[in-house]
Amino acid sequence: MNVDDLRYEKYTTDEEQKFESICKRCGECCGKMDDPCENLKKRDVDESFCAIYPDRFGQRKTVSGNTFRCVSIRDHITQQTLRPNCSYRRFI
Ligand code: SF4
Asked: Most buried among 10, 31, 42, 57, using CB within 10 Å?
């Protein structure tokens, strides 16, 4: 890898981290308020996390057995399906 490739890789990694840091980990996009994804776990009263985050996309199940398709937050932004209190609403 040359210097430009390394710079580009660092730039994209930094940008991805900035984008990820916008999330307040409320868990609303994973159904926390009604029928949550079976992979949504509680960190504390206010924060949740996905137990399979790197492999989360695709067909998933809720705790009550309903199926849904987990998509990226970018898809939620472009499809305008963000939850009402989601911090990514600044992008729509
Ligand atoms: S609803 Fe938005 S802020 Fe809350 S966990 Fe999902 S992406 Fe993060």
From this structure: 31
